[in-house]
Amino acid sequence: GDAVADVHLVEWLVEDGVQVREGDPLFAIESDKSIVEINSPAGGILTKLEKAGDVFPVGSVIGTLS
Q1: Which site among 42, 48, 55, 61 is 20 to 30 Å from 10 CA-CA?
Q2: What does the alpha-carbon distance between residue 66 and residue 37 come to, in Å, rounded to a whole number?
Q3: What is the mean pLDDT of the segment spanning 29-44?
Q4: Strand, helix or coil for residue 19
């Protein structure tokens, strides 16, 4: 099929400024009518850069861990 170019940020699963551990669910995205939870690749404090409800190109930075 076609490669996915954009995804919808459905919801953040943790609050801004919260300490997360590797593997914790961070947010949910929707693409091609399926919703997928994305887990944290590492531990750290989450800083949200984008809001839920928006659409972003695949690979966009929507938050950081410090």
Answers
A1: 42
A2: 21
A3: 92
A4: strand
